[in-house]
Design goal:
alpha/beta; 48% helix; 19 helices; seven-stranded parallel sheet
Length: 448
């Protein structure tokens, strides 16, 4: 069965080769490491925790978990892997003083996986948000490592994809010692796929435990000064946007700018708002920049050298990686992308952690349980499925209300802060449930 899997993986790799060549910056980065060729890792007798994150979202989510792992298991070393270039860039930055190595996850062939496992010799493998790589999981188990899924999540899309090969996924799941899932729906889905229900526990989402770090606060202030972000010109943030959401948001912003401050209920000392757009994928930065230049507004890129015009620009393109969390405290309102199109939405938890008024589109299946709770308490505004023109009109109306009505904005901010506070504690629960497999790992070392 694993031979067939490797054969299909090889075939898929060959078919995808033209895409790898065309977009080599994204897919070829770290290629030697993906084949199992890593810089020398010097072992010092301490056991190794291998934490795997996929991309930026999982890497950010892992921050509180890494802190607790270091605090609770100080006699272990931590190594972190990612799949994507953006995840790798962020992990290299935020874990440089906390992890003993940061590297690319190996391609799921026996030779590359075994080379990685021989190099790092992990005693514990933690997979963030249900990354199921069958060969890696099997080989890690054979090597003697304990394996756990942490902050596990199975969206409807992922569940549907895994369900098509349920017979094979079930085999891979037998090698996993523990699955700590975000919610009941995630737990039910992984059990349906074949995970032993006795090994599945709901611990919540560690993203609720987000705390602002000192370096983030410093960047927030740096950004505030450079772009002169003040309450007199409220800032709208469009976070993690996908095509064509930027175009829709800019059109809505055009109407918002014309409606404000005339329609404000409390218009004292408030001028025309500003819009910051943060595309989800870095390869689209230039495309979004061209879209912004076509508008009638002044625009500036975060990556450009600072100039006096930064303080006056209407549109700001955040063409950087890992800085978005630091900017939510500056926003008066946040739109979360991937939700106006059938993508399933990006996470609302980071702007919620900053206590901001949040707006999303009708497609939020990736975070359905969280959004449903926020909707039930009117802590978030969700658009219905409509045409482009109707959606733009509704976005305009909603943002005018949020920016113009202090009472509406403050109520949403307080409600979302309350929900975040009520749901904190997932990281502590995760450590609690991980402790037995750490102890089992120690016992295996003693027995050997």
């Amino acid at each position: 069965m694993f031979f067939l899997y490797s054969l299909l993986l090889t075939l898929a790799f060959i078919l995808m080769s033209p895409l790898f060549l065309l977009r080599r910056q994204k897919y070829a980065s770290g290629f030697r490491q993906r084949l199992g060729n890593y810089p020398e890792f010097n072992h010092d007798g301490r056991k190794v925790i291998w934490l795997h994150c996929v991309s930026v979202g999982e890497t950010n989510a892992a921050r509180p978990l890494v802190e607790e792992l270091k605090s609770n298991f100080p006699d272990h070393r931590i190594v972190v892997s990612t799949t994507t270039l953006t995840g790798q860039t962020l992990a290299q930055d935020i874990f440089k003083s906390k992890a003993d190595a940061v590297f690319y996850f190996p391609l799921d062939w026996k030779f590359s996986v075994r080379k990685a496992l021989v190099m790092f010799k992990p005693s514990i493998v933690l997979l963030m948000e249900t990354e199921i790589w069958p060969r890696f999981i099997r080989e890690a188990k054979i090597s003697g490592a304990k394996i756990a899924i942490v902050n596990g999540r199975l969206s409807e899309k992922s569940f549907g994809r895994y369900s098509r090969v349920r017979w094979f996924v079930k085999r891979a799941l037998t090698f996993i010692d523990l699955a700590l899932m975000q919610g009941e729906a995630d737990a039910q889905r992984i059990v349906f796929l074949g995970m032993n229900s006795e090994k599945v526990t709901v611990t919540g989402n560690v993203k609720f435990d987000h705390m602002v770090e000192t370096s983030e606060s410093a960047f927030t202030e740096e950004f505030r000064q450079r772009f002169a972000v003040t309450s007199e010109r409220p800032l709208i943030i469009a976070a993690s946007t996908h095509e064509p959401e930027e175009e829709w948001i800019i059109e809505a912003f055009s109407s918002i700018a014309g409606a404000i401050p005339e329609r404000f209920l409390y218009p004292v000392n408030i001028g025309r708002p500003r819009l910051l757009i943060a595309p989800r994928h870095p390869e689209r930065f230039d495309q979004v920049w061209r879209t912004m230049l076509k508008s009638d507004f002044s625009a500036v890129r975060r990556s450009s050298l600072p100039t006096d015009s930064d303080k006056l620009s209407d549109l700001i393109l955040l063409d950087s990686i890992g800085e978005m969390r630091s900017l939510f405290p500056l926003a008066s309102a946040v739109f979360v992308g991937g939700s106006l199109i059938p993508h399933g939405g990006q996470s609302v938890l980071e702007p919620a952690a900053a206590g901001k008024a949040i707006v999303i589109g009708p497609f939020f299946s990736n975070f359905a349980s969280i959004v449903d709770e926020m909707n039930s308490r009117q802590a978030i505004i969700t658009l219905g499925p409509d045409t482009k023109e109707v959606s733009i009109g509704k976005l305009t109306q909603i943002f005018v209300e949020i920016l113009g009505n202090v009472r509406v904005r403050e109520r949403m901010e307080e409600d979302v802060k309350r929900i975040m506070a009520e749901n904190r504690g997932a990281t502590a629960k995760t450590i609690q449930y991980l402790r037995p497999i750490f102890n089992a790992s120690e016992q295996m070392k003693t027995d050997n």
